[in-house]
Amino acid sequence: MPARDRLLALFVAVLWGCNFLAIHATLGQFPPVFAGGLRFAVIAIPTILFVPWPKVKIRHLLGYGLGFGTGQFVFLFIAMDTGMPTGLASLVLQASAPFTVLLGAVFLRERVSGRQLTGILLAVAGMATIAWQQAGNAALLPVILTLLGALSWAFGNLSTRQAAPDNPLNFVLWMSVVPPLPMFALSLVMEGPAEIGHSLSTLGTTTGLIGLGGLAYVVLFGTIVGSGIWTSLMRRNPAGVVAPFSLLVPVVGLSMAFLVLDERPSLVEILAAAVVIGGVLFGSTKRRVREPDFLAEAETPQPTGVR
Fold first, then answer.
1. First vs last Cα of the chain: how many Å apart?
2. Boundaries of each EamA domain copy (predicted)?
3. What is the pLDDT at residue 149?
4. What's the predicted TM-score (pTM) here?
């Protein structure tokens, strides 16, 4: 992987890690489910007008949109709105990786290796420790909601695998067409027109401008720029080389939440975070088997006529 691509991968990890700060700012102005609907509606309108159809089956696009888009962000935004620390949210959402492996085994009959199973168990142990710590602070529900968001993301990943789009970025952009209607409908039922109206009528306030700035960041940098660069990196390099850079996202998220929001995770949570990231990394990389020297020598072609 060229040095330029490594720097780009690091840049995307920083963009996505800061995305959680932007979500925090957005939720300061908008109700959580309504904020999720706005996030996708802003992308959906220009996508319909200017982006070519990704040439996939509609059921796969709907599955990805309902899983990755609707389910993930409904649960995540409500979790963060009800007390899930911003930094920990960026970490717990990494549970989507082991969830994807398990769901792939159940629904797609994909084989789970011993290495993957070990990584899953490590990640689960770390998540359970974080949940135990948060339960002691009466904040278990936001952790559970974030885990449900990660599970929804994993279901969306299954649809992506089945869709196998020729242009992944177009597929991601067209996925944004799916969530707005169900999210706006849920918002009307759960949050009510009065709360939605108040969030829109106070956009000129300081909080409103900060909320709009957060929404703009999520759309432009978190989605369009970040996903665009990531897609190009995945095309030019092996997936196994690029994917581990995503594990830097919770590192950035936790660090930025500490610096900007003064969130201070406990020592136990920091150690559990390291276990989670290590488990995901261990389970998502393949073991490189070195060929024995004598075997390599035996298979080396000999010059013709030489004994």
1. 41
2. 7-130, 142-282
3. 96
4. 0.86
Task: Write the pLDDT tens digit of every residue in 144-181.
Answer: 999 999 999 999 999 988 988 888 889 999 999 999 99
Query: What DSSP string runs through the chain?
Result: --HHHHHHHHHHHHHHHHHHHHHHHHHTTS-HHHHHHHHHHHHHHHHHHHSPP----HHHHHHHIIIIIIIHHHHHHHHHHTT--HHHHHHHGGGHHHHHHHHHHHHS-PPPPHHHHHHHHHHHHHHHHHHHHHHHTT-HHHHHHHHHHHHHHHHHHHHHHHH--SSHHHHHHHHTTSSHHHHHHHHHHHTHHHHHHHHHHTTTSHHHHHHHHHHHHIIIIIIIIHHHHHHHHHHHS-HHHHGGGGGHHHHHHHHHHHHHH-----HHHHHHHHHHHHHHHHHHSPPPPPPPHHHHHHHSPPPTT--
Is the CB of residue 254 less than 8 Å from the CB of residue 91? yes
pLDDT, tens only, 93-109 = 988 888 988 898 889 88
